Amino acid sequence: MFPNMLKKIVLSVVILLSLQYKSQLYSVDELDSINNLYWDRGEVAAFVKFNLEMQKKYKDANNIDGVVNTSIGLGGAFTHLNRQKEALEYLDKAKENIGNVTNPLLISRLYNQYGELYTLSDLYKESNKSLDKAIEYAKKINDKKKKDKRLSIANLWKWYNFNQMGMIDSAYAIQRRSLQNFPDNPLVYEKIASEYISTKKHLDSAEYYLNKALPLVSGTTAFYNKGLVNATFGDLFVAKGEGDKALPYYFQSLDIFKKTKNKFVEKEIYNRISKAYQTKNLNDSTKAEYYYKKYSYLNDSISMNEKKVLGAIVEKLVQEKEDEQEHKTILYTVISAIVVLSLILLFFIRKAYLKNQQKKDRIIREKALKIEEKEQEADELKRKVNDSFEEVMQLVKTNDPFFLTRFKEVYPEFYQKLINHQPNLTEHDIKFCAYIRLNLNSKEIAQYDNIAIRSVESKKYRLKKKLELSTETDLTKWILEL
């Protein structure tokens, strides 16, 4: 116990000394150590002030990891203060920069904080989506201790969400995994015990799990965990109606949270002590009322003080935004002046351009007239081709012996390409190719040539072979594209 306490004292001194050098930019781990010290003391307002100051320094240094880290921390602080709007703004600010971050620890923490915020807003499904992302990135963390911490936190929140959604099987699955994967996390055992206590059933099981958690917080400097386990022990005895046994645990827990100056948990302990004095074996209404008043007073005091302190911080933030807006106004004025000058210049450039364009338009119109004349000629040619097509089709339908002669006249290029490809084609072969070139189907060919459809297919097969086409080549497509 003593070596651990000594380490904690040394760490605290080092951190406090380092805070004097305000120009220093801390790494992710260093900033987390300082922030943890603020949380241990319950100094949320100081935490917010420090992270706002550090965020400005990180921005000036273009340190993206630092900006993201402080934004996540501020999002967490405002979440715990039930100031969800501000929390969301800072988390969104972190998310805007997350694309430039490669540290999976920061990304996991961001989505974990989103998950916590959504849970406290009763958006359990959205919370689980974010927590799943937190778990995904946590698995990429190389440091096993840090990885397990992120995974255990995300799973504890998912566990709570599933319980709230009535998905007991899913909650139980996480409970089972947490017991297997995070046996050194006392909050896993504390949460299981709390669930038993809330139902006031199987209190012996609750006591069993609390006894498993107790050695994990004995002698530790993790004050929050130790205080929480002690408080839950108190809840156990209150559930049993043994308020006298609950009080020592509550007072131990109270002492811890007083030392850490965590007023938020401290007030909850006062409320629980009040309930302990209301149990049958104590039934002390005077002390119950006394501690309830301490709870109420502290609750009101916290609300008032935090509003004052954090209100000033928010005012500072607003002032910074106003200053930034003033700079933007100056910038917009300069930009506007540039735009006006650009428009004047553009006017003269456009005037010269239009003059030149008129000349080009005249040339284009002349060319367009020539193109139109050519198009008219092409249309006339197309009309003649269409007339010729109708003429050829009529010869096919009447089985006219001059059909092939006229076809060669109308489609000379096709005929020439065909015999160049295979000079040994018979007149009958060419006639069959002509049918296909006119886009006649097998049924029409059979009708006009007075043969069976099967014979048409056989002819196609023989013709394809004679033309030396591969088996993969489609005869009709080949002829139409020739």
UniProtKB/TrEMBL annotation:
Segments forming a coiled coil: 364-391
Sequence intervals crossing the membrane: 330-349
Superkingdom of this protein's organism: Bacteria
Gene Ontology biological-process annotations: regulation of DNA-templated transcription
GO MF terms held by the record: DNA binding
Keyword line: Coiled coil, Membrane, Transmembrane, Transmembrane helix
SUPFAM superfamilies attached to this UniProt entry: C-terminal effector domain of the bipartite response regulators, TPR-like
Record bears the keyword Transmembrane: yes
Protein name, entry field: Tetratricopeptide repeat-containing protein
Organism: Chryseobacterium wanjuense
